[in-house]
Design a protein that fits this description.
The structure is a single chain. 22% of the residues lie in helices and 28% in strands. It is an alpha+beta fold. The strands form 14 sheets. Strands 9, 10, 13, 14, 15, 16 and 30 form a 7-stranded mixed sheet that branches. Helix 9 links the parallel strand 21 and strand 22. The radius of gyration is 36 Å and the shape is elongated.
Length: 1005
């Protein structure tokens, strides 16, 4: 049985016992345990069920590569599924439940699938769920939805908090084993700023478990001394429990820190997502041991040999009293030796190799009385929910049983594979190493930075160096080279430490045990434990033509589990190559994508939750609006007054009052939310000519011009007034909801297409408060404030000027979105409320009144001005809206020009903008469609137009609307039918979209 032994447990604090529960059963462990080590110490070998066949599954590994031991952790707001028992640190009160079974872990009804396995081969769902078609909705889909997924989705709101950190360094080192520590020491001594990340709570990696000496001292002492030295270096920052999650362009790296998972009662965030910019990245991420493929290699108790050694040395856990070791390399002998030296039994080491002489590790094993059987393999593991015995065969044969050995555990080792995920995330290439029988980083093809040089370097075992001395020398050389490339110089006295060497016999690649295994054995030899992918499944994929590794992956689901194929990929690729009679390098690898290991959704969101998930943006006058009856309307992330309702007044009446007052006296609009983007540089005019449909480079300083902006697909995405400040500077106004989007749009084109333009852009929307002073009395109000000449001659329409009004420094734009005499005045945001107050005082006897967005919409609709988001929907081009006048014929190109020349865009049957007036003066329903004669191909009534904006105009005393209609401008005076959702059909006449002051006389006074 699996139990805790008296010796070992170097990571445990045995003076502090902790209690935890698994499936409701109360168990005990020690501080320093992982959940997996504590479960094994309590003889809990069965920890879960596989996804497809619901086979019993036990712990296989000791790190993030673990595919089986996934559990639900916590309750209520702290519940989280799919947590690896091997990386979960034990704490008092931990509550864990196994997954993917019903009604219980020990008795799972889903296990019936194993008896149906011949009917459920790889890819069966692609064939089975097609016919008969009615079955999909009523039979297949309900069953699939019930069966899909691992774990349970949380139902309660997350009770924890999360945060983001930003960090910058010269050298980022990922991995805190001896390679990472030595690289950090070397880079740190050169003077570089270094950040060192280690995903576990402990430094040193595997070295303290595997032993050896460095500079004559035990490796664990060397690690302690090195950590102490690094902690005194001010330019080196060391972090444990931080995983390197992903490597991206330009030295951008994500780190995932688990702050309080091990101490959930501690104050502070649970997880932290690091956003790191590094001059160079060193991946010292080590290597992962590969399993061997033989029948029954998924039975609980079959584990990686190094992991059994980890549990023994680090946690004092014996997985079984009798352990059979099966291997194709020397490293597994370390496990056999450690077990025997701990007083446990190793009945045999089954070594698939046939060697001419024993290696030092083999000699040591035989000295301890361990039986070594060369050229032998496992034919089959016996047992169901735990190992009971192994059947031994010749590796060269077909599986004929030569001997049965009773045992409680199997330690398997198929060799080691460097952790190349981070290296590969940003384009690093791999090369097949025939000696190690694995892929390792190709140093001649690293991930490339913007300068064309590599910005990631692999070190130690991650680079394919597995001997302790080789690891240290490679890490030192890698860090020295990186520091030198960054301009730092390593002192001559800093040299690589020397470690003891132990000669090992070469590995022999073994992709199946025995090599001639028949179909009965191959159907029980597992490659992907979590997704139940067998050797026979990969061969079936190849047989059915899925010879591309990416196709085979998707056909069989190999490596698509939460461990992303950390244990299965190389064995799966080798099996596919064998089935194709090809060499492994020609098959290639699947794509490695971040994150390296699953990270919490909470850490991705960080602080962005609750009230700050999408913070409400407020203008400087927000509180005044609130105090004066504002009814709020969300516009983007802003809150804008829809109307200012007086006591006892309806919203409709308030809007009508505001429109009438603005048309006849004076109104104030808080326009601070409109986007304000500065575009500056010698190439600013050229840049804006490409962004806008009309010419901006010809605009003179002091002048304004209305502009349209289209996507590369030709569709209208924003509009606004552009003001030229000086020869190199423009200020572009955008819609309220478009400021961030258009700023991003500009940056994207500058950074990806026009990177050689000497232009900079800055979003200054919140730096200014902007107030529209609108109406016949607008000029009189500003003249009362005094300080600037705002007459028609001094400040003509579509001009701007800097100056002072009432003691406030300001910039006045003589523009109008209402058709009335209008000034938009920008002041520093901190002066916004005071300037608003000054305008209210100055306009008091002139009839001043604030107005909201609905009044604004009616004013612009009366003038026939379009509104982005009303008249546009992502499919509209300027020509649809009659805005051909805003498209320059003088320039060769602008974004969207070529797209607008496509046949669909010049189709004469595109709907065009018109005005609409109901025959009875009523108001058309918003979004109503105009119906024509006949039906379409779907037997639905033919649609010939739709309403885009509709209002009651108090100025005109009737309903007005704008809409898009088939051949609309050619159908003036024609009456259309618009069925409403109220059962009534509205009739409206097509008219000019400009309802009020078509000549523009009122705005030019």
């Amino acid at each position: 049985m699996s139990t805790r032994i008296a010796t070992g447990g170097r990571l445990l604090n045995k003076s502090n016992a902790v209690s935890f529960s698994f499936n409701g059963k109360q168990l005990r462990g020690f501080e320093g345990d992982t959940l997996a080590s504590a479960l094994l110490a309590n003889d809990q070998m069965l920890v879960g069920r596989s996804f497809k066949y619901h086979r019993p599954r036990g712990v296989v590994a000791a790190g993030p590569e673990e595919p089986n031991a996934l559990v639900n952790l916590g309750r209520a707001g702290k519940f989280e599924p799919n947590q690896r028992a091997t990386t979960t640190e034990l704490f008092d009160g931990l509550n864990a439940e196994s997954q993917n079974h019903w009604p219980s872990l020990e008795f799972d009804v889903g296990a019936i699938n194993k008896y149906l396995s011949r009917f459920l081969p790889a890819g069966f769902y692609y064939k089975m769920f097609i016919h008969p078609r009615p079955f999909w909705k009523h039979v297949y889909e309900p069953i699939i939805r019930h069966s899909a997924g691992l774990g349970k989705a949380p139902k309660d709101q997350d009770a924890d908090s999360y945060e983001h950190f930003y960090a910058f360094c010269d050298v980022l080192i990922i991995g805190g084993g001896v390679a990472g520590l030595e690289a950090a020491r070397t880079a740190g001594r050169s003077g570089a700023r270094v950040i060192l990340l280690e995903q576990t709570a402990h430094w040193g990696g595997r070295a303290p478990v595997d032993g050896g000496t460095i500079e004559g001292t035990p490796v664990n002492s060397f690690v302690d001394d090195l950590v102490a030295e690094l902690s005194t270096m001010s330019n080196v920052e060391m972090r444990t429990r931080v995983m390197g999650a992903g490597v991206y362009d330009h030295g951008y790296v994500l780190g995932y820190e688990r702050l309080t998972d091990h101490a959930p009662q501690a104050a502070g965030p649970r997880h932290r997502l690091w956003r790191i910019r590094a001059g160079h990245v060193i991946t010292a991420t080590g290597a992962i041991e590969r399993p061997l493929s033989f029948a029954g290699n998924d039975i609980p108790g079959v584990m990686l040999a190094a992991s059994i050694r980890d549990y023994l040395v680090n946690y004092g856990v014996s997985v079984g009293d009798r352990t059979v070791v099966v291997t194709n390399n020397d490293d597994a002998y370390r496990t056999a030796i450690a077990l025997v030296e701990a007083g446990l039994s190793v009945p045999a080491v089954l070594d698939a190799r046939v060697l001419p002489q024993d290696s030092p590790l083999m000699v040591r094993a035989k000295e301890l009385g361990i039986r070594v059987m060369m050229g032998h393999a496992i034919s089959r593991v016996k047992g169901t929910k735990r190992v009971t015995a192994v059947e031994v065969c010749s590796q060269a044969g077909e599986g004929a049983v030569l001997e049965t050995i009773a045992c409680e555990a199997v330690a398997m080792s198929g060799g080691w594979a460097p952790v190349v995920h981070l290296w590969s995330h940003c384009g690093g290439k791999l090369v097949w190493d025939t000696t190690l029988a694995t892929f390792r980083p190709d140093v001649d093809n690293p991930p490339l930075g913007a300068d064309g040089h590599g910005f990631v370097t692999a070190a130690g075992a991650a680079a394919g160096f597995f001997g302790l001395d080789d690891i240290l020398h490679d890490a030192h050389a890698a860090a020295d080279g990186v520091a030198t490339a960054l301009g730092f110089k390593l002192p001559s006295e800093v040299v690589s430490p020397n470690a003891s060497r132990q000669e090992e016999a070469p590995l022999t690649p073994v992709w199946l045990m025995p090599q001639g295994a028949g179909v009965n054995l191959r159907e029980k030899a597992w490659l992907d434990y979590q997704n139940d992918v067998k050797v026979s499944d990969i061969r079936l994929a190849a047989q059915e033509g899925f010879v591309s590794v990416e196709h085979a992956k998707r056909y069989t689901t190999l490596g698509m589990a939460t461990d992303q194929g950390k244990l299965s990929n190389v064995n799966g690729l080798a099996t596919l190559a064998g089935a194709m009679n090809a060499d492994i390098p020609s098959v290639g690898t699947t794509t490695f994508r971040p994150p390296y290991h699953p990270i919490s959704m909470g850490s991705i969101g960080g602080e962005a939750r609750g009230d700050v998930f999408q913070p409400v943006r407020r203008t400087p006058m927000h509180d005044w609006h609130e105090a004066n009856g504002a009814e709020w309307e969300p516009v983007g992330q802003w809150r804008r007054p829809y109307s200012y309702n007086r006591p006892g007044e309806s919203t409709h009446d308030a809007v009508m009052r505001e429109v009438t007052n603005t048309r006849t006296k004076i109104g104030l609009l808080d326009a601070s939310t409109l986007g304000k983007i500065i575009v500056k540089g010698p190439d600013a005019g050229k840049f804006l000519d490409l962004l806008y449909t009309n010419m901006m480079s010809s605009l003179k300083p002091g002048k304004c011009r209305y502009g349209l902006m289209c996507s590369e697909n030709g569709f209208l995405i924003d509009d606004g007034v552009v003001a030229r400040i000086d020869d190199d500077t423009f200020l572009c106004h955008t819609t309220t909801g478009g400021a961030e989007r258009i700023h991003q749009h500009m940056e994207e084109w500058l950074q990806t297409e026009w990177w050689d333009f000497d232009v900079y852009v800055a979003n200054v929307t919140e730096q200014y408060a902007q107030i529209a002073v609108v109406g016949p009395n607008a000029r009189k109000c500003l003249e009362k404030l005094g300080g600037m000449d705002v007459s028609k001659d001094a400040l003509a329409f579509m001009e701007w000027a800097d100056g002072t009004l009432g003691g406030f420094n300001c910039r006045i734009y003589r523009i109008s979105f209402s058709g009335e005499l209008s000034y938009e005045i920008a002041v520093d945001a901190g002066q916004g409320q005071a300037f608003w107050d000054a305008l209210m005082v100055a306009g008091n006897d002139l009839g001043v009144m604030p107005y909201g967005t609905e009044c604004l919409h009616i004013l612009r609709a009366e003038k026939g001005f379009i509104m982005i988001g009303d008249e546009t929907d992502g499919t509209i081009i300027p020509q649809d809206l009659g805005l051909n006048w805003a498209i320059s014929k003088k320039k060769d190109d602008y974004l969207g020009k070529r797209a607008q020349e496509r046949s669909h865009m010049v189709d004469p049957n595109r709907w065009k903008l018109v005005g609409l007036e109901t025959t009875d003066g009523s108001t058309l329903p918003d979004g109503a469609y105009a119906v024509g004669d006949g039906v379409n191909e779907n037997n639905q009534r033919t649609m010939i137009g739709r309403v885009t904006s509709t209002y009651h105009s108090p100025t005109l005393g009737k309903g007005i609307a704008m809409g898009l209609v088939l051949n609309g401008p050619d159908r003036m005076g024609e009456v259309l039918d618009f069925p409403g959702t109220d059962g009534k059909t509205y009739q409206a006449k097509i008219v000019d979209p400009i309802f009020y002051d078509k000549e523009g006389a009122k705005q030019n006074v």
